[in-house]
Amino acid sequence: MKTTSLLRGFAALTAVLLASCASNLDTTRVPMSASVSPKQSSVVGKLDQSLNQYRRSIGKSAIPRHASLDRLAQQHCMFMAKNRGKFELGSANISHYGFEERTLHAQRRLGMSSVAENVAGGVIRGDIASQLTGAWTGSKKHLYNLKQDWDATGIGVYVADDGMVYATQIFATKSNSQMQMVDRFRQF
């Protein structure tokens, strides 16, 4: 009897704690058809050039863009903008929230193995691409991701009307495992 009462009490306490930790994030999907303006597309292209120029300056090869990873990165930027001010860890405006789902998508649907991500956000005036590159290369953890050997990258940028910029870069390596190849062939 005491065990049952203790278990019920523990379950009730756990439910209350989990409910208090639950976020009020808007996790609805962001439509991609209208999400990238010509200005944002231009910033993404310049950021890609700037990041690859940095890589070449340290003796690394450029990372080719991957359209599906671009979409994942852009969706994450839109998600951060939609949930501005609601994140609890680090910054209230930027987050890696949902990284596990993006990783699983890259692994299962795109045949990638290793996946990493850099995010940034803030009000940026002037050359957005060079300032984001400077921020990521000036940060030890972001620089670590940027300097690794990757097979593909996806870049997304969203610029809000008030100048708030959200940026995401997803890095991935293609899987060469036989199991993953078998899994891909089973999908046909």
Structure overview:
- There is one protein chain.
- It is built from seven helices and three strands; from the N terminus they run ααααβααββα.
- Residues 1-23 and 27-34 have low confidence and may be disordered.
- It is globular and about 45 Å long.
- A hairpin with a 4-residue loop joins strand 2 and strand 3 (164-174).
- It has 188 residues and is an alpha+beta fold.
- A three-stranded antiparallel beta sheet has the order 1-3-2, sandwiched between helices.
Question: Strand percentage, roughly?
Answer: 15-25%
Rg from Cα: 20 Å
Mean pLDDT: 79
Structural class: alpha+beta
Low-confidence stretches: 1-23, 27-34
Trace the largest sheet across and list its strands: 1-3-2
C-alpha termini separation: 54 Å
Q: Which geometry do the CA atoms define?
A: globular
Reading the helices and strands in chain order gives HHHHEHHEEH
Helix content range = 40-55%
Per DSSP, the total helix count is 7
Instruction: Compute the number of strand runs.
Output: 3
What does the main sheet amount to? 3 strands, antiparallel
